[in-house]
């Protein structure tokens, strides 16, 4: 792919590159999305939201923070998950009213409690219900708002599961879905074992000119470029590889432009982003919650520090906002080269 490649279009929404920030449960809030956009992501999706929560979301700060949209992050997607087709339409309308430009439907989450409530990846085993959800959402939101889908490659490796996948895949496009993100693992796999890029290539061949986004095992800029080249997908949705590492977008853009690999951010570059992330979190969540919210992000950022384990342990021990800033003062005062976090694969983040 060259710098002259045409922008990626999701319905009427034009993206300036094929690099997307995925929805990540508990992570992809407004601050994370803004930082991803500032570092080169063309588009980002909020953390997965339960349809029944969105439809009746209250006015307290914590609830409103989950559907907050910043003027600087457009275009931005809102992702919904649920079980009952009747609940999706009002939730989708509410997200459009909140300012989301695209409505994404989650048929991929492999978490046990989600499957047990007939949500997420469970719906890959019930094509009729899944497609009814797609139709309800498409009919509910204005024509200018694209509807997209997130799928895994099936419940398991059985032929029945594969047949269900293709039924939903083809049927969703027929019902007006503008793009489908396919994760190359099955629901049964969860996050264990490799993601099948061969399946992504097959999905793109089947889709033809329709937009397919690839997902799975994107922990480095080189991997992002390789997925685009090997599978032919139209874009890549970077999930766990972007937590605490927004630089992955800038690094991938550099490779796509034909340049040399960019080095990991220096310690001072990391510190600047950590401080900005904290500022954004404080603005969104309030001073009382900012430190608690940021602790989970900070331990991911620590992977880029040359003293990663001590830095992580120090952030884990944080109890107050002052403690959080003290870790920065202790470990990030002296500049130096950062380290590549690509080998530190995190298996704990769910519903990406």
Summarize the structure.
It is built from 14 helices and eleven strands. It is α/β, with parallel strands linked by helices.
Topology (SSEs and partners):
Elements: E1 8-10, E2 13-15, E3 19-21, H1 30-38, E4 43-45, E5 49-50, H2 51-55, H3 61-66, E6 76-81, H4 85-98, E7 102-107, H5 112-116, H6 127-140, E8 147-152, H7 159-174, E9 179-183, H8 197-207, E10 211-215, H9 221-231, E11 235-238, H10 247-256, H11 267-285, H12 287-301, H13 308-316, H14 321-331
Parallel strand pairs: 3-4, 3-11, 4-6, 5-6, 6-7, 7-8, 8-9, 9-10, 10-11
Antiparallel strand pairs: 1-2
Helix pairs in contact: 1-11, 4-6, 6-7, 9-10, 11-12, 12-13
Rounded to the nearest angstrom, the distance between the terminal CA atoms is 26 Å
Question: What's the order of the H and E elements?
Answer: EEEHEEHHEHEHHEHEHEHEHHHHH
**What is the C-alpha radius of gyration, as a whole number of Å?**
20 Å
CATH topology of the largest domain: TIM Barrel
Q: Provide the low-confidence segments as ranges.
A: none
CATH class designation of the largest domain: Alpha Beta
Our count of helices gives: 14
- Biggest sheet strand line-up: 3-4-6-7-8-9-10-11
Strand content: 5-15%
* CATH architecture designation of the largest domain: Alpha-Beta Barrel
**Count of folded domains:** 2
The chain-level structural class is: alpha/beta
Mean of residue pLDDT values:
93
Helical proportion, percent range: 40-55%
Instruction: Give the overall form.
Output: globular
How many strands, which pairing sense, and closed or not: the largest β-sheet?
Answer: 8 strands, parallel, barrel
- CATH homologous superfamily annotation of the largest domain: Aldolase class I
User: What is the β-strand count?
Assistant: 11
């Amino acid at each position: 792919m060259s710098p002259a490649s045409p922008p990626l279009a999701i319905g009427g929404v034009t993206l300036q590159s094929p690099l997307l920030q995925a929805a990540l449960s508990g992570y992809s809030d407004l601050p994370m999305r803004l930082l991803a956009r500032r570092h080169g992501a063309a588009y980002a999706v909020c953390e997965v939201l339960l349809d029944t929560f969105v439809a009746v979301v209250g006015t307290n700060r914590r609830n409103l923070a989950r559907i907050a949209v910043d003027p600087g992050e457009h275009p931005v997607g809102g992702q919904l998950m649920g079980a009952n087709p009747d609940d999706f339409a009002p939730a989708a309308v509410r997200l459009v009213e909140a300012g989301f430009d695209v409505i994404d439907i989650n048929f991929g989450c492999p978490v046990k409690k989600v499957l047990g409530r007939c949500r997420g990846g469970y719906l890959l085993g019930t094509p009729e219900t899944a497609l009814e959800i797609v139709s309800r959402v498409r009919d509910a939101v204005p024509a200018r708002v694209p509807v997209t889908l997130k799928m895994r490659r099936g419940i398991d490796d059985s032929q029945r599961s594969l047949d269900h996948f293709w039924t939903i895949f083809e049927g969703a496009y027929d019902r007006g879905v503008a793009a489908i993100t396919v994760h190359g693992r099955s629901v049964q796999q969860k996050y264990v074992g490799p993601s099948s890029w061969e399946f992504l290539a097959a999905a793109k061949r089947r889709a033809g000119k329709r937009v397919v986004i690839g997902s799975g095992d994107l922990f480095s800029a080189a991997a992002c470029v390789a997925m685009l080249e090997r599978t032919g997908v139209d874009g890549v949705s970077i999930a766990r590889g972007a937590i605490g590492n927004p630089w992955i977008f800038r690094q991938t853009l550099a490779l796509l432009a034909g340049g040399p690999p960019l080095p990991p951010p220096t310690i001072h570059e990391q510190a600047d982003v950590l401080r900005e992330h904290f500022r954004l979190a404080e603005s969104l969540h309030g001073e009382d919650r900012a430190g608690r919210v940021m602790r989970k992000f900070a331990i991911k950022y620590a992977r880029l520090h040359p003293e990663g384990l001590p830095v992580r342990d120090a952030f884990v021990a944080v109890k107050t906002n002052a403690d959080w800033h003290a870790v920065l003062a202790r470990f990030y005062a002296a500049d130096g080269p950062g380290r590549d976090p690509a080998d530190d694969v995190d298996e704990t983040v769910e519903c990406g």
